[in-house]
């Protein structure tokens, strides 16, 4: 007899194996980042409003629209930048990033280069950018450094390679990068110049060292201080003309960069999709994040994959325990909460989408399994596992209709256990249940074909529905059933065994438009009573023949 199998009934080794398989699938999804868009949507929701007060030393000297209007068309003579640097030097600014592309010499007036180089030397704390030129066709990747005269006087250089995700949002960066090896710090890192080892994910893959490739390392997520215009700004032209109080500039970490509309690079960030952020403010966010120790570090890939697999496997195991629905309800929000807490409390980013998708698939499969089991249970007898009265009636109706269409015979067999009440009274209800289970096993064994059905529709009353079965075929089934019942030795408690017999009524007809399922039931019932009147432990057949 086939029992209803549910996750709760699986042996523990099978449960563990199933959990390991679904966990491995989740690990693959995490490793290959199949759900990165969903991960980034969760990340943006978590960090979008996570503001903090930026480091007070940071100040942007903005090459804004007002400066362009007053100083003329861009680019300006490099002597102009030299005069600005002298203003910052006189005000004793702590460090200055001059975020300008200076990779070519001034073709009209070489003295401009010398003037800017001298101003950089006088300041002594100027950081200049290294621009990455990506490979294109036969052209190899390049580092565009300031011209040697200017670069030689800089305190340090920093790369301006900004990591933009496939959806156009800048969420992270590599703190070091360079051709051949990641030897240049990010521009914001060079401005902050924090002590101690660098945070971020290391790229230790072998075989990547090449003198011709742009290499990047120490990947981190940028913790933005807030939406655009979070950092204080002063206009370039106001500083140049001495209209900014030197006290505003003293001791500051200053980033001189382009913010003018139509010229400045524009970035989307998780803080807002409605306003763009300038490259200068992006670098200021990087510097502030490093100065205030607010770097968001992604979990290492091995930990990310392992945690994803463990969470999904654990969810799968929990669904095999009692109150599994509670585990399913808690699994998804718990995973989101874990990701949120780890981010907010530990500045670590655990991408939850692969785990959530794996859990959702497991929960959906469990729910479908449970619905299927409930449907089977609703149509099954709880004690024997055979079809119950409802399923018996539905199947008899369906097979009657099928026989009427096909012109094939339908046989209904009704079975009673002989003297069952006496057996129950003598040996007890548990022994009686054993009798019913053993008879049910025999009935199930005789319902061999896919459309055959065995059912229990009363206390000790059973039935067999045998579609496409002739009287001769039905007779063979019934004779074997009666003989097998006679041979049963059923435990009756206290070491005793008992024998049991059955009485069977058989009714076979070809369904027609004039017959109904009740006619088959009434015919089989009449044959059953005929067999009982003949002394039980036998059968009677009504096949419509001469009698």
From TrEMBL:
Molecular-function GO term, any one: diguanylate cyclase activity
Required cofactor names: Mg(2+)
Enzyme class: transferase
Entry superkingdom: Bacteria
Keywords: Membrane, Transmembrane, Transmembrane helix
UniProt xrefs under SMART domains: CHASE2 (SM01080), GGDEF (SM00267)
Any one GO BP annotation for this protein: negative regulation of bacterial-type flagellum-dependent cell motility
Family annotation (PROSITE patterns): GGDEF
E.C. number(s) listed in UniProt: 2.7.7.65
Keyword Transmembrane included in the entry's annotation: yes
Residues spanning the membrane: 302-319, 324-343, 349-369
Residue intervals of the GGDEF domain: 408-544
Pfam families: CHASE2 (PF05226), GGDEF (PF00990)
A GO cellular component annotation in the UniProt record: plasma membrane
Gene3D superfamilies attached to this UniProt entry: 3.30.70.270
PANTHER family noted in UniProt: DIGUANYLATE CYCLASE DGCC-RELATED, REGULATORY COMPONENTS OF SENSORY TRANSDUCTION SYSTEM
Record's protein name: diguanylate cyclase
């Amino acid at each position: 007899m086939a029992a209803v199998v549910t996750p709760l009934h699986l042996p523990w080794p099978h449960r563990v194996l199933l959990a390991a398989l679904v966990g491995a699938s989740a690990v693959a999804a995490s490793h290959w980042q199949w759900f990165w868009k969903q991960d980034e949507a969760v990340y943006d929701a978590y960090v979008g409003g996570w503001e903090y007060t930026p480091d007070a030393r940071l100040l942007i000297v903005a090459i804004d629209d007002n400066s362009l209007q007053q100083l003329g068309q861009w680019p300006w003579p490099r002597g102009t930048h030299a005069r600005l640097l002298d203003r910052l030097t006189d005000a004793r600014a702590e460090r200055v990033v001059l975020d300008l592309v200076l990779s070519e010499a001034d073709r009209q007036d070489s003295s401009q280069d010398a003037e800017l180089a001298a101003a950089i030397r006088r300041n002594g704390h100027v950081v200049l950018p290294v621009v990455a030129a990506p490979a294109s066709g036969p052209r190899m990747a390049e580092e565009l450094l300031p011209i040697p005269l200017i670069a030689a006087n800089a305190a340090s250089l920093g790369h301006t390679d900004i990591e933009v995700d496939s959806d156009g949002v800048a969420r992270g960066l590599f703190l070091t990068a360079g051709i051949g090896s990641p030897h240049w710090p990010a521009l914001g890192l060079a401005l902050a110049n924090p002590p101690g080892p660098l945070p971020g994910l290391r790229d230790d893959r072998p075989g990547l060292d090449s003198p011709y490739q742009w290499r990047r390392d120490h990947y981190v997520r940028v913790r933005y201080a807030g939406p655009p215009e979070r950092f204080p700004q002063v206009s370039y032209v106001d500083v140049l003309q001495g209209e900014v109080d030197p006290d505003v500039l003293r001791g500051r970490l200053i980033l001189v960069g382009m913010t003018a509309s139509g010229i400045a690079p524009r970035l989307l960030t998780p803080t807002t999709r409605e306003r763009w952020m300038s490259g200068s403010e992006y670098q200021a966010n990087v510097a502030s994040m490093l100065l205030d120790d607010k770097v968001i570090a992604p979990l290492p890939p091995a930990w990310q994959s392992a945690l994803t697999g463990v969470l999904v496997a654990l969810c799968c195991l929990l669904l095999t325990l009692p109150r599994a629905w509670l585990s399913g309800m808690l699994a998804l929000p718990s995973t989101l909460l874990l990701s949120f807490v780890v981010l907010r409390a530990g500045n670590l980013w655990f991408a939850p989408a692969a785990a959530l998708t794996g859990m959702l698939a497991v929960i959906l499969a469990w729910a479908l399994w449970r619905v299927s089991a409930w449907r089977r249970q609703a149509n099954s007898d709880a004690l024997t596992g055979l079809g119950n009265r409802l399923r018996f009636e539905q199947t008899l109706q369906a097979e009657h209709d099928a026989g009427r269409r096909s012109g094939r015979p339908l046989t209904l067999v009704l079975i009673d256990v002989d003297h069952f009440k006496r057996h129950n009274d003598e040996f007890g209800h548990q022994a009686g249940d054993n009798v019913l289970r053993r008879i049910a096993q025999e009935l199930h064994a005789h319902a061999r074909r896919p459309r055959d059905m065995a059912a229990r529709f009363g206390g000790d009353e059973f039935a067999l529905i045998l579609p496409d079965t002739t009287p001769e075929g039905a007779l063979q089934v019934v004779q074997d059933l009666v003989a097998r019942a006679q041979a049963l030795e059923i435990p009756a408690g206290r070491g005793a065994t008992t024998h049991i017999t059955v009485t069977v009524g058989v009714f076979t007809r070809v369904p027609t438009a004039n017959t109904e399922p009740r006619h088959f039931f009434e015919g089989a019932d009449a044959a059953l009573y005929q067999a009982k009147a003949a002394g039980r432990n036998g059968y009677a057949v009504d096949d419509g023949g001469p009698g």
